[in-house]
Amino acid sequence: MEGIEIKNLVKKFRKDIVLDDISFNIEPEKIYGLLGRNGAGKSTLMNIIADRKFSNHGSVTLDGITIHDNDEQLSRIYLTSEVDVYPDRFKIKDLFSWIADIYKEFDYDLCKKLSSEFKLNEDSKFGNLSTGYNSIVKAIVALCVPADYIFLDEPILGLDAKNRDVFYNALIQTYSDRPRTFVISTHIIEEIANIISDVIVIKDSKVLINDSTENILKSSYEVTGPAAEVDRYTEDLNIIGSESLGKIKSNYIFGDLNDKPIPDTVTISNIDLQKLFVNLTDRE
Ligand SMILES: Nc1ncnc2c1ncn2[C@@H]1O[C@H](COP(=O)(O)OP(=O)(O)OP(=O)(O)O)[C@@H](O)[C@H]1O
């Protein structure tokens, strides 16, 4: 199989099972949103895929070959670090040249271009960067390394609205210039909904969803109307949440609608990814 294949992965911290026998694939040339509540296991999963943390069981392969202790396969995977791996005293411009020396095909031109778009002061020392600029430096590096599978762990943490826009545009541009896979974990779902081609949702230590954004949105509905009629229409459906305002009720559905005739008083509309996520991950 082409791409990253995660098979029967188990990760425990002492007795806590963070990832419970999960299996799924990450395909070439797609932009994934990796979603999950705080503590769901997104960072842990990305660190295992990048071979920085070990699993208790299971395997991760890239194009059918194990990534574990395999430098050749690992050179095709890049994960932005949540811990600060760069020396504090490094000036940003020296940091960029240093990284360009390590990665022979590092896109130095793009790096310089992004640095200017983000108005990054390359004379600053890494250790003195603000939270936002710390994220920006890591994101710039991630967009310029020559890897085929790039994992960005909360890349927009601390970025202001303008710089989040710069980041999204840079991502779209570099992807269209050189399609490769990006896996982005974030809590700001409404902003990436239009960028990601696919969505992975982790809940209760399992992969709840791994599907195209298009398919997911096509199967997500809000059914609104008088409570009794809404409940009657949706009784056989996969209700993931509901809201009421007086006698009017909305039931949120994920999955197929039934063939029953839709009552005149009931309206059905699609819901956005953010609303779907909140309802799906809110349930016990
Ligand atoms: N080194 C560790 N030792 C013990 N428990 C850990 C360790 N690392 C992570 N955990 C636990 O594993 C779970 C998953 O953590 P992880 O950081 O992967 O979640 P996340 O989905 O990235 O969360 P967030 O969105 O809050 O960043 C959490 O309950 C966390 O406390």
From TrEMBL:
User: One Pfam match, by short name?
Assistant: ABC_tran
Task: Output the superkingdom of the source species.
Answer: Bacteria
Tell whether Transit peptide is among the UniProt keywords: no
Q: Which UniProt keywords apply?
A: ATP-binding, Nucleotide-binding
User: Can you give the residue ranges of the ABC transporter domain?
Assistant: 4-229
SMART domains (alphabetical): AAA
Q: Name one GO molecular function term.
A: ATP binding
Which SUPFAM superfamilies does the record cross-reference, listed alphabetically? Answer: P-loop containing nucleoside triphosphate hydrolases
- Name the UniProt record assigns to this protein: ABC transporter ATP-binding protein
Q: Does the keyword Lipid metabolism apply?
A: no
